[in-house]
Design a protein that fits this description.
This protein has helices spanning 3-20, 65-77, 79-89, 97-122, 124-130; strands spanning 29-34, 42-45, 52-57. It is mainly α. A three-stranded mixed β-sheet has the order 1-3-2, covered by helices on one side. A hairpin with a 6-residue loop joins strand 2 (42-45) and strand 3. Helix 1 packs parallel to helix 2 and helix 2 (65-77) packs across helix 4 (97-122).
Length: 138
């Protein structure tokens, strides 16, 4: 998958899930597609306003791009929990016990939520058909 295809897939998944979840500010989800041998795919947040900067690394990820996007979007949709951690514990970049506990829970939750989102994405057409109005039999 090239950068253009990855961009389109990422934007389509953002559009689909922000609409499905009634995400309040989809315009605050920004993303960049990178192609680097360095293992980078992240979500960064601004501490004063929940703006999400996603980096999707497509290097050597031909089969797993949608999974990677779903995982990073899960972090976005769980963003309030990251903000709560920062407010309660004042994250300083140090590997404190509190941070390690939060980071582990955050990654596991994003992993599980991301899997569910990926399944929903893969079944999107079937789910949309189920929600279509059915003709009345009279």
């Amino acid at each position: 998958m090239d950068k253009h295809e990855a961009y389109n897939l990422t934007q389509s998944m953002i559009d689909y899930f922000t609409e499905l979840l009634h995400f309040e500010h989809p315009e605050d989800i920004r993303f960049d597609i990178i192609d680097s041998p360095e293992p980078v795919s992240n979500v960064f947040t601004s501490p004063t306003h929940m703006v999400y900067d996603i980096q999707i690394n497509i290097y050597d990820q031909q089969e797993d791009i949608a999974h990677l996007i779903a995982h990073e979007l899960a972090h976005v949709f769980l963003g309030e929990y990251a903000e709560m951690f920062h407010q309660l514990f004042g994250y300083t970049g140090e590997q404190t016990t509190e941070f390690k506990v939060f980071d582990r829970a955050n990654e596991r939750t994003a992993m599980r939520f991301g899997r569910m989102m990926l399944e929903m994405w893969n079944l999107k057409e079937e789910l949309e058909k189920m929600n279509e109005p059915r003709p009345e039999n009279n």
